[in-house]
Amino acid sequence: MSETTKRILVALAGNPNSGKSTIFNNLTGSRQHVGNYPGVTVEKKEGRATYPGYDVVFVDLPGTYSLSARSEDEMVARNFIVEERPDVVIHVVDASNLERNMYLYTQLSELDAPVILAMNMSDMVEAKGFTIDYKMLSKSLGKPVIPTIGSKNKGMGELLDAVVSVHEKKIKFERTKVDYGLEIDMERSKIGQVLSKNNIKLEGYPKEWLTLKLLEKDLIVERYVQGFPCAREIKDQVEKSRQHLRQHFGDDAEVLIADRRYGFVSGVCMEAVQQTTEGRHDISDKIDKVIMNRFLGLPIFALVMYGIFKFTFTFSEPMVGWFEKFFEWLSSSASLIIPEGLFQSFVVDGIIGGVGGVLGFFPLVLFMFFAIAFFEDSGYMARAAFVMDRLMHKFGLHGKSFLPMMISTNGCAVPGIMATRTLDSKKDRLITMMVTPFMICGAKLPIFALFIGAFFAQEHGANMMFLMYALSVIIAFVSAWVLKTFVFKGETAHFVMELPPYRMPTIQGLLLKMWERGWLYIQKAGTIILLVSIIIWAGFTFPQVEPQEGMSEEVVASTQMEQSFAGRIGKFVEPAVKPLGMDWRGSVALIAGVAAKEVVVSTLGTIYSLGEVDPEETESLSESLQNDPSWSPLKALAFLMFSLIYLPCFVAMAVFYRESGSSWKWTGFLIFWTTVMAWGAAFIVYQGGKLLGV
Amino acid sequence: MNRLTSVRSGASVKLVSIDGGRQAEVRLAEMGFLPGVKIRVINNSGIGPLTVTLKESKLALGHGLAKKILVKEDI
User: Fold this and answer.
1) Closest A-chain CA to B9
2) Minimal C-alpha gap between B52 and chain A (Å)
3) Which residues contact A191 (CB under 8 A, 6 or more apart)?
4) Closest by CA position to A530, among listed A668, A271, A353
């Protein structure tokens, strides 16, 4: 007899840094990103767990302190709970930081969501000098409370049991109410009366919640109410009520409501929490004193970043060499096995030359991801944001802009752009989104590694790379400053951020993270980069040119390329990039690179592979560049400048378009801005260098 | 009454009120910066952001925002 499995939809909500993503990973076994700083979960992530007879679907909501929908990520979290009506909401609470975390709970329970509390990091509670009476807590809230330790995978079974029991209605819920006091409740009921007098049907919204949100001047709820026939009447009543409260308490309704919520929370905590010893912050405080010191903070941050590059270059160097040798061997063997002709060229020049060039840098990318993951998981990144805040402020950015930029540096501008959702003000968000693509992402890394390897002495590799990263930051800052001064005027919003406690990253955690991001790199090489490489190869191979009498093989090969489709496009663009020291080859690589930045490398790989005539003497791409007299270190530098700044890849542009509120205006501006900046910077480097006689 | 920015590192103070726009006030309230609450300043270098503990958690606070927080000595 087969039993149909029942589907349970579970949402995971919680503050940033509550360990929500770790619990999500434990429950679903899903491989996804967890970082020890606020704002990592920018999109809802889904995963599944199995339980006898059930199919449990988990959705990881963005970490938020509140559901007031003032920033994009709060909106995402709240809309999910209101619109999707999940069967269960697990509220993941950092138990060692109970009061702050429970603020969100008051809002979840007001939405009538079936909440289970996961008291996470329960092992940290004692270390902080507390004990929590979970039974008491559960009793006073009327909700199941499950202690968990995400990092040690403890309490997950109990959590799943509770999810199923709640779904099966084996646990009775009580609605715990925040006592908002007589005055606020009176005003709420007045607003409620307007609603019921006009026979308004509320789709799914609890009426009590709605009246509260109206008092708080919640934008979304205001917009929702706008559609009612009695919209005017509601609005007037809300204004009257707010006025009344302001007169009575001398404060805005939002502040009064927040105050009551915290009051409720501290009442609950007082009952359930016992302080055993005086709390200890000493070690963390002592480290912070040095790391966040006014004078030492920035140098330490620079040193940390430098350390990351030194580590990456030193340890990946031999492996990158092996990979290069391997692809050289692969090309020459393929040339021997496959008879000469179009198919040989397709395999050797198109596929191995293109994709091989990108895969050759795989070890470098892996080491880089590992090093950065270490600092993310340790809790240092939030401090770095703090240290950078003062500096960033001067340029129209702020500490919170640092995280999207770091995410872009660690991996990709796409999650970076999405992470700007944690910024409250639209203006700050747009500026940050505009400068995030300037950072050197995992896809741009191979371009830099290739040219630095080819034109600069080996011992300077890490230094050059560090310099390039520093340059990308400077360009982002200057660009933000220009935008702030000439395009987006007005105050920069405020910066409050929680500093999570330091944690020692676990080796498994680091390896998992490194592998996730590294695997994406490989996947991309096998799909989009392979596809674009084939197109580029075809672009250079057709139309076929008839070899003339007396032409040497080299001349045939270069005439073929110059007269092919891609070659003609390159030649057409050449005059525009000539002042930057680039020829048609560089321009084709850059144009193709808009599909994905790794393609710059794969295209050059194909071009140089096609130009090689003797299959016995294959050389690596970096050797080819070195031996090509049309390149010089100065030209390489100008080329890198252009690559650093110019157009983001297609995917990043598409995400920018979506996140800017589907604005063609801003997307167009981004394209214009990056092109102008790139051209200008490369021009200054190349012409300036020539003047100086470099 | 003082501004939070003028409190030296290591001192504990009580929040009196927020002297700022509605948006700042609401954001701060949601983070727990409410009248009567106890704030311990961990590090205040005089310029740039400062770090404080509030309700058992450590927070970084921009200078501009900290300036809007009016406090008195905690007795």
Assistant:
1) A289
2) 10
3) A211, A214, A215, A234, A237, A238, A241
4) A353
Mark the ranges of chain B whose per-residue pLDDT is less than 50.
none
In B, what residues contact A, Cβ < 8 A? 18, 22-32, 34-35, 37, 42-43, 45-49, 51, 53-65
Within 10 angstroms of residue A158's Cβ, the number of other Cβ atoms is 14
Cβ contact A389–B34 (<8 Å) = no
Contact: B35, A259; criterion CB under 8 Å: yes
Contact B48 A68 (CB under 8 A): no
Using only C-alpha atoms, chain B has a radius of gyration, in whole angstroms, of 11
Predicted local distance difference test score (pLDDT) of residue A31: 47
ipTM of the complex: 0.89
CB contact under 8 A, A100 and B45: no
Is residue A592 within 8 A of residue A565, CB to CB? The reply is no
| Cβ-based neighbours of A507, under 8 Å, separated by 6 or more | none
Of A259, A292, A495, nearest to B43 by CB-CB distance is A292
d(CA A240, CA A634): 69
DSSP string, chain B: -EEGGGSPTT-EEEEEEE-S-HHHHHHHHHTT--TT-EEEEEE--SSS-EEEEETTEEEEE-HHHHTTEEEEE--
* pLDDT tens-digit map of A279-329: 555 677 888 888 888 889 899 999 998 888 888 888 888 898 899 889 989
Asked whether A685 and A641 are in contact (CB, 8 A), the reply is yes
Q: Which two tokens stand for residue A110?
A: 């007001």
> Which residues pair with residue A55 across a beta bridge?
A7, A50
